[in-house]
Amino acid sequence: MLSQQILNGITLGATYALIALGYTMVYGIIQLINFAHGEIYMVGAFVGVFMITVFQQGLVVSLAAAMLACVIMGVTIERFAYRPLRRSTRLAPLISAIGLSIFLQTLMTKIKGPQPIPFPHVMEDALYKLGPIEISKVQIIILVVASLLMAGLHFIVKYVKIGKAMRAASEDYDTSALMGINVNRVISFTFAIGSSLAAAGGVLVGLYFNSVSPFMGVTAGLKAFCAAVLGGIGSIPGAMLGGLFIGVAETLGIAGGFDTYKDAIAFTLLIIVLLFRPTGLLGRPIQKKV
Amino acid sequence: MKKSKIYFILSALMITALLLTGCGGGGDEKKQAEGEKAATGGDTIKIGFLGAKTGGHAAYGVETLKGIKMAVEDINTAGGLLGKKIEIVEEDHGSKVSEGTTVTQKLITRDKVVAIIGDPTTGITKAAAPIAQQNKVVLLSAGAVGPGVVEIGDYIYRDVLLNSVGAPAVTKYLNEKLGWKKVVVVTSMNNDFSVGLTDLFKEALIENKMEIVGEQSIQDGDQNFAAQVTAIKDKNADGIIFTGYYTEGALFMKEVRKQGLKSVLVGGDGLMSDVFLKMGAEAVEGSMFFCGFAVDETKSSDKTKKFIEAYKAGNNGVQPDYFSVQGYDAVMLIADAIKAANSDDPEKFRVELAKTKNWEGVSGTITFDESREPIKSPVYLLEVKEGKLAVKDTIEVK
């Protein structure tokens, strides 16, 4: 029973982690909390539904299409909503992000209506017994896809040139620009990767919970943001760990009968962790240079 | 200094604007109300319709009005009431509570209706009822199921199936006809309807000596029910009593099937929606819920059949739902009370209305108990069958 609940929690946490990565990567480079990130996740889920219902595609194609659509959207958003504000006060892009978040929610409500819509039937679900626990096909898909994407991200960041550039830009934005790194390209790329992960998260969550709605990005975005901060904002492994941590804690909380406080669990955890480790679980302390 | 002056003027202007819109029309209404309280004369009996034709609850209002109009037509073609014709005064409050009270006021003071039918929702009924009570006009809601409605006063009535009638009847049915002994109860904690219905079900479960083997809580708006379903999985329950609304009900059942559980769900009319069928798809197959009326070709009385036929003829073959039926019954209840009192003075016919006992309506038999709450029979138990709603059974209430 407990192990079953932990599995439920890990599945939920894996989707949080996918969203949290976008928050943390963007923050790592331009110190912006991209509050429209939850809405990218929502749009990703809708694109997935659209591909399945209108174009009769399978899960893999729909997932890829949703990721591609959100890459375009993420890069466009960065280009038009954030880049013009990059040298202004830190509050300006934040407000821009909140505005964008409201705009996207309202736009989707206008197009599809405020009611949640069911996620179309795309494959037969099955249940497998694994010792004391039962794992469904959907859960396996979520865990496998999320792990693959995270492994891919790790590979890019560690071993590919653009990944090195990302790390350099996150270390010191101005110096890396002086060293000949095209920082604008790096930032666009960061938004592209973050958005594609969020889109994947959206489609997987739609598949898992069987519903998508224009407002699904709000709480998911907040929880993922919590996960990112909990793990140490700016840290990629931190976001993964934070996501899983919050997913498991939330599920165990519900199982323990604290459903009413479900959403409070993530935030309480955040407060507790930040009290003892202000930089988050895996965050590095910022050294002030004099 | 200059800036703050401008702000001051601006805010002063805004406050005046607010005050003006707030009081708009208040003046002449008062004038009209003054000096009149003369007995309602004339050659028509006016009944007001309080409901929404636009906005969020438009579907309820429009359907109720259809039923009301059919009843009025039936009465008027049969010669009217006390030699007079009935006239319906229609208003639209656009699903807004504030407008609802304005409309009520208007119906009473300007149109001088003797009775108001509406509102289909509990919230607006509770806002309008004190006004009707104060002005001694009968208000009969054809849709309000929530608590605290008829308690407002002795001019306030409703003709709906109450959860306090439906839940015990269904529980008894589950126990005696389907042999259920152990159930799991799922409540949506941020939904008053659900919390209230859970209490009623629990009371009935205890009375029927059934066992609650598990209790889970959810929230309206939740999408992830994995933890709750895992927690009830090994309880071996005969079924799930789910008191929330349709979206969460459908998603909950999806998760139940995903985790390989075979149980079906039983709930109240909060599940009554196409969304439940569409979103739940095969996962809600076999799920049951009770409601005050459904079209049942086999068991319905001649009166009901006649209504269904007439409704279908006027609505391109669409079947009536319980709002139109209750709207129809509401007019008929008032008409019969007026006939019995031989007067269209609300002060007189409300006494007759309170005496209503085993009254045969289209939606079933209605009795008002000593606290003027309706006891309706039968309770319709619907079941999802091949993706459609079918009447599983009708449960007679004593």
From TrEMBL, chain A:
Predominant cellular place of this UniProt entry's protein: membrane
Keywords on record: Amino-acid transport, Cell inner membrane, Cell membrane, Membrane, Transmembrane, Transmembrane helix, Transport
Positions of transmembrane segments: 6-26, 61-82, 91-108, 138-157, 186-209, 264-283
Signal peptide start-end: none
Keyword hit for Membrane: yes
Transmembrane is among the record's keywords: yes
Cellular component terms (Gene Ontology): plasma membrane
InterPro entries on file: ABC_transp_permease, BCAA_transport_permease
GO molecular function: L-isoleucine transmembrane transporter activity; L-leucine transmembrane transporter activity; L-phenylalanine transmembrane transporter activity; L-valine transmembrane transporter activity
A family per Pfam: BPD_transp_2
Domain of life: Bacteria
UniProt topology in membrane: Multi-pass membrane protein
PANTHER family given in the database record: BRANCHED-CHAIN AMINO ACID TRANSPORT SYSTEM PERMEASE PROTEIN LIVH, HIGH-AFFINITY BRANCHED-CHAIN AMINO ACID TRANSPORT SYSTEM PERMEASE PROTEIN LIVH
Protein family: Belongs to the binding-protein-dependent transport system permease family. LivHM subfamily.
Name of the protein described by the UniProt record: Amino acid/amide ABC transporter membrane protein 1, HAAT family (TC 3.A.1.4.-)
Source organism of the structure: Desulforamulus aeronauticus DSM 10349
Organismal lineage: Bacteria, Bacillati, Bacillota, Clostridia, Eubacteriales
TrEMBL record, chain B:
Segments forming domain Leucine-binding protein: 44-387
CDD domains: PBP1_ABC_LivK_ligand_binding-like
Record-linked Pfam families: Peripla_BP_6
Alphabetical keyword list: Amino-acid transport, Signal, Transport
UniProt GO BP: amino acid transport
InterPro entries listed in its UniProt record: BCAA_transport, Leu-bd, Leu_Ile_Val-bd, Peripla_BP_I
Signal peptide region: 1-22
Keyword Signal: yes
Family to which the UniProt record says this protein belongs: Belongs to the leucine-binding protein family.
Name of the protein this chain belongs to: Amino acid/amide ABC transporter substrate-binding protein, HAAT family
